[in-house]
Amino acid sequence: MASWSGQGVTIGQVDEALLDLRRGEQRAATRVSTINLVVVAEDDADAQRARAAMRRLGGRNPGRTVILIPDRHGPPNVDAHVRLYHATVDARPVWWEEVQIMVAGPVCEHLDSLVEPLTLGDLPVTVWFASSIPDPAEPLVGAADMVVVESPTEPSGNGRSGDELAVAVMSGLLALAQRRHWPTWPGSG
Fold this sequence. Notes:
- With 189 residues, this protein is of the alpha/beta class.
- The chain contains five helices and seven strands, in the order βαβαβββαβαβα.
């Protein structure tokens, strides 16, 4: 795993870090992505649940995950962590990327403007609200091809842990993506 972190950064710096990490890896791998996933997390615990779900699914369903942790009341700031993951699937190297952005201030009203430069243009964008119900007027909702809403604080009645529930949500989402004729990675279906 390769990684990069920055405080008080621009989205352009985050995008450049993604490119630099991929270029800097000695083991070459072709990007094969099945999804642009944007996760809106209320806190680091929700972000960790989303990261754990995507790491479990990454080798079979690689993609770019952008995790947003907005603080609408904090002073304007953008901090970011970028991680590049590697796995071998059917003797082929596979990479997937994870970007976590902690954003504060007025830009939280326009999260879509942060996300757009970081998505892979040839793939649909799915937004997963990991712990809240979004305002339908939220610009990020309007920019998404699909929206997933989860409320993990409500009892599910099925005895699943938060991580198991997150993986189940993502597995269902990826199955839906495959039915909608979105690109898939060999062995993912």
